[in-house]
Amino acid sequence: MYAISRQFLCLALLGVSCPASVLTVGPGKDHETIGAAVAAAVAEDTLEVSPGVFAETVIIDIPLTILGANDGISAGSNPGLRGAETLIDGGIQVNAGGAGTVLSGLRIEQGLADAGLQTGILIDAANVTVRDSVIAGIGITPAPVPDSHAVRVTANGSGVVFSDNRIDDNTAGLLLEAVTGAALSGNRIEGNSGAGVHALAGSSGVLLRENQLVANVIAVANEAAAPVDAERNFWNSGETAPADGGPNGYSGDVLFSPWFADAAMQTLVNGVNTDTTVGEGETLTADVLQIGDGVTLTVERGSVSANRLDLQ
Predict the structure, then answer these.
(1) Alpha carbon distance 221, 195 (integer Å)
(2) Do the beta carbons of residue 231 and residue 255 sit within 8 Å?
(3) Rounded distance, CA 47 to CA 200, Å?
(4) How far apart (Å, rounded) are the C-alpha atoms in residues 236 and 267?
(5) Whole-model pTM?
(6) If you compute the radius of gyration of the chain from its CA atoms, what whole number of angstroms results?
(7) Which of the four, 13, 35, 233, 277, has the lowest number of CB atoms within 10 Å?
(8) How many angstroms separate the Cα of 271 from the Cα of each of 244, 282, 288?
(9) DSSP code of 55?
């Protein structure tokens, strides 16, 4: 007996592509496993996955939306009340044909085999969105695998959007390989043994906003010529600037000022560490304006707004 795909039937009988559908996954649902649902899906389908443990590696070759039980509930810097998780005890690989895929509301552990390493999510496609998910223990359990990553984004993965996730206790967090355009917002990136975010040479357009960066060996590492824009994040450093090369600090060309002094991201500190001029039409704003030792701040027809001036 031969299995005939839904897409083949649509093309053969109607001469058109099948309209997008919703496929359910879990015990008693349309499909028992995520992999079976992916195999049955056509481009732009949505897979709604029940809570429970799915011991599998999921390979995606067409654009899909995969929604776990906690879709719409942040796991990141402002977490919601999450229920039972959709746990993928394995990993997800999005190949080039899966451009535009959305992954949401999942928990990923163990990771997939990736050139001898473990990777929670391997993104080799453009414009992939990962949100409201937890990626934990990659390269740590059940046995240490050095140089593993929670997420690895190849050069084909430009335009990735990563929001409201929790990336904790992995060998390392997010690895960006010559990526053009990556937006990270509202995530909590914590306790990773390597870099929380690591941009390799050739990367550009890497933007971090309102993320909590806590207890990583290095929070943000940049090996690219283009700067990583990591302004307006919490580095767990209070009103002290994150350290260059220090624990949970940064390395390479990373723009970190202004930063938030508190985990709730209410108090913004703007550190002026080099001689700076605020020119006409420009405004320098912060709750705390910190002027470094020996630094001159010149205001020429611009404006400065601060609740407190802190002279180092």
Answers:
(1) 6
(2) yes
(3) 33
(4) 12
(5) 0.90
(6) 22
(7) 13
(8) 14, 16, 8
(9) -
Q: What angle do CA 81, 73, 60 make, to 5 degrees?
A: 135
CA torsion angle for 147, 150, 156, 162 (degrees, to 10)?
Answer: -150
Helices (H) and strands (E) in the chain, counts: 2, 31
Q: Which amino acid is at 304?
A: V
Q: Kindly state the helix (H) or strand (E) to which residue 122 belongs, with its residue range.
A: strand 117-123
CA distances for 131 relative to 101, 102, 154, 215, 260, angstroms: 11, 8, 18, 22, 22
How many C-beta atoms surround the C-beta of residue 69 within 10 A? 20
Distance CA 148, CA 45 (A): 31
d(CA 44, CA 295): 54
HSE on the CB side for 129, CA within 13 Å?
Answer: 15
| Bridge-based pairing state of the strands 134-136 and 106-110 | parallel
How many angstroms separate the CA atoms of 187 and 151, rounded? Answer: 13
How many other CB atoms sit within 10 Å of the CB of residue 9? 11
Per-residue pLDDT of the chain (312 residues; tens, 9 = 90+): 444 556 565 655 555 667 789 999 999 999 999 999 999 999 999 999 999 999 999 999 999 999 999 999 999 999 999 999 999 999 999 999 999 999 999 999 999 999 999 999 999 999 999 999 999 999 998 889 999 999 999 999 999 999 999 999 999 999 999 999 999 999 999 999 999 999 999 999 999 999 999 999 999 999 999 999 999 999 999 999 999 998 999 999 999 999 999 999 999 999 777 888 988 887 877 778 888 778 898 998 889 888 888 886
